[in-house]
Design a protein that fits this description.
single chain; 246 residues; Sufe protein. Chain: A; 4-stranded antiparallel sheet; 6 helices; 8 strands
Length: 246
């Protein structure tokens, strides 16, 4: 009997000891877990800048002179890829015009498909095709240059070429550099040349370039003695400003 009592006492003592060693449990603390940040709160990396992908817009190549007239290509670019190609200048009139109508649509399609100037010459329109390829390569070079320089929003300087305007003495075409919404440079990539016309061009164009930068608009005065060139310059300048969104 004494052994039973001692055994029972030992068992009770062991249970009491175990209960005293068990840590207190706080239901609220036990249910709490480290708080994880919401996925949407993480700052995004990469992607687009300002909602507009770099390498988008319109790029116009230099006009390439051919035996039958100038050829000039303009590309529409989105996310660094050509989405549209068009010839803003091409030979016209008579047989040359017929060849242009035949060749240019095919060349446009090839440019978009190839994404390069490595396109085939259209049979029967060799000169137009070669001029197209040269102007296309010029546009691609400009696109590459703009892309490699990196985009920094509206303040990023860019070059815009206006439409070529035909005058009584030859075409006039203006190219402007725009930065922070202002014209920082203006130049005539085409203007009448040779003889008296060339002399007037040399006299008028530098003044018109300066006036364009100073005014920031196409509302500039004609240069005395070079009325036709001045008028063509202003029209092409306005075209460039329209393309630049100015």
């Amino acid at each position: 009997m004494r052994r039973v009592v001692l055994a029972t006492a030992a068992t009770v003592s062991g249970v009491v000891l175990l209960l005293s060693l068990k840590p207190a449990s706080d239901p609220a603390a036990a249910g709490a877990a480290p708080r994880q940040p919401a996925a949407g709160q993480e700052a995004p990396q990469g992607g687009t800048q300002g909602g507009v992908q770099a390498g988008s817009g319109a790029v116009t190549g230099d006009a390439a002179q051919t035996q039958y007239g100038a050829v000039q290509v303009r590309l529409t670019v989105s996310a660094g890829k050509i989405t549209e190609a068009e010839a803003v200048q091409a030979p016209k009139g008579g047989l040359s015009g017929q060849k242009t109508e035949l060749a240019v649509p095919r060349l446009n399609q090839q440019a978009v498909a190839a994404q390069s100037a490595d396109i085939d010459v259209v049979s029967g329109a060799t000169y137009t095709s070669e001029g197209y390829k040269k102007s296309l390569q010029s546009a691609l070079d400009k696109m590459q240059k703009e892309s490699s320089s990196g985009s920094s929003g509206a303040a990023q300087a860019r070059t815009v070429t206006g439409e070529a305007v035909q005058t009584q003495y030859g075409p006039v075409q203006v190219r402007i550099t725009v930065g922070a919404g202002k014209i920082t440079k203006a130049e005539a990539v085409q203007a009448p040349t040779g003889g008296l016309s060339g002399q007037k061009t040399q006299l008028a164009v530098p003044r018109l370039n300066q006036a364009a930068v100073a005014a920031g608009t196409a509302d500039i005065d004609a240069v005395s003695g070079a009325t036709y060139t001045s008028s063509g310059y202003r029209q092409s300048l306005q075209s460039a400003l329209d393309r630049a969104g100015g």
